[in-house]
Amino acid sequence: MSIPDLAAQIVNKTLNQISEDTARTIIIVGSKSVGKSSLLHSFLEKSDRPRETLVLEYSFGRKSSQKQGIEKIICHVWEYGGRLEMLRNVLVSIPVTGRFFLCIMVDLSKIKTVWNTLETCIQIVSDSYINSLPELIIIGGKYDVYKNYDGDMKKNISTTLRSMAVLYNAHLLFYTNKEPQLVRKAKEVFYNIGFGNGIPFREKNTNYTKPLMIPRGSDNWDSIGVPSSTLEQIKMRHLSRIPSEGEMKQEVKGLQRSHPEPALDSLVALKYEELHNLETFDPSIDEYLMLL
Questions:
Q1: Cα gap 30→84, rounded to integer Å
Q2: How far lies 114's CA from each of 23, 52, 158, in Å?
Q3: I need a surface site. Which of 2, 38, 164, 195 has the fewest CB within 10 A?
C-alpha cells in the first residue's frame, strides 16, 4: 500500500470514529473589533495577546474525556473576521465534526449596527445549513459601554435580541472583557459547549438593566412583552425605534470649512477620511491574501 493510500485510510478511520462525544465545532462570527478573539483566548487559555482577525482563523482545544478514559475531546474553533457579505462563501468551506455551535456576536456599543449584523448573519446561516441548523448563541459584546446607555434604548435592544433568540431557538448572553464576572460566565459557557455536556447556562437573567443571560427554550413572547412575531415584524419594530446604520449615514453632513486657509481645510478633510477608513477598513479575502 502506498503512503498516500495509507494516509487516506488513517484519515477515514479517524473520521469514522468521531462522534458528538469526542468532537465539537464552534464557529464565531459577527461585528469586527467586538471582542471575539479575546473571548476565544480566554476560553482556550492562551497566554499570547489577541490580534485582529482579518479573515478566518482556526484554533483548537483538547481535554480528556471522563467517559472515554484516555481518549480526548477535540474542540475545533473557527473565528471569522472578514466582510459579512463574504460569510456565505466561507461557511460552506468550514468542516464540521461532532456537535456544532455557531455564535453570532454583535457590538452593543454601536447600536445602529446591531440589526444589520444580526439579520445578515442569521440569514446566511439559515441559507447555509438548510437541513440542520447549528445550535445558535447570540452574544452582545462590549457590555461595559452599553450598560451606560439610556434605559429605553437598552430595553429596545434587549427586546430585539430576545425576540430573535426566541424565533431562532438561540441562547443569549451579554459579554465584555472589561468585567471579570462576565468573562468568567462566558468562559464557562464556552467550556460547556466545547468540552462539557452542551448545556451552556447555569444562570438566567431577563432584566434589561443587567447583563442578559437566557438559555434557549427558557424565554417566550409573553415574557418579552411582545406578540409572537416573524423576522419581518421584529425588523419593523426594531427599525421604528432605532434607525439602522445605513439610514443614519444619510444624515451625516459634509465637513464644513473652519479655517481661512484652503490648505488647512484640505489637510483636515484628508485626516478625517483617514480616520474614517481606519474605522471601517474591512478587506476582502482576495485583498488580504495579496497582502501576505
A1: 7
A2: 32, 20, 11
A3: 2
Helix axes of 151-167 and 114-128: crossing angle, nearest 10 degrees: 10
pLDDT at 107: 94
194-229 burial, b if ≥16 CB within 10 A, otherwise e?
bbeeeebbeeeeeebeebbbbbbeebeeeebebeeb
The tens digit of pLDDT for each residue in 36-73 reads: 888 988 888 887 776 776 688 998 888 875 555 556 88
Q: Rounded to 5 degrees, what are φ and ψ at 48?
A: -75, 160
- H-helix segments, the chain: 3-17, 36-44, 87-91, 114-128, 143-146, 151-167, 180-195, 221-224, 231-241, 245-249, 262-280, 285-291
Strand order across the beta sheet in which 23-30 lies:
56-64, 72-80, 23-30, 99-107, 135-141, 171-174, 213-214
Q: Provide the pLDDT for residue 259.
A: 52
Tell me: the pLDDT tens digits for 206-264?
A: 999 999 999 999 999 999 999 999 999 999 999 999 987 643 343 344 445 555 566 66
Distance CA 241, CA 115 (A): 12
Nearest C-alpha neighbor of 109 from the set 284, 245, 214: 245
DSSP for 56-97, written as a single string: EEEEEEEEE-TTTTTPEEEEEEEEE-S-GGGHHHHHTTS---
Residue 74 CA to residue 61 CA, distance in Å, equals 6
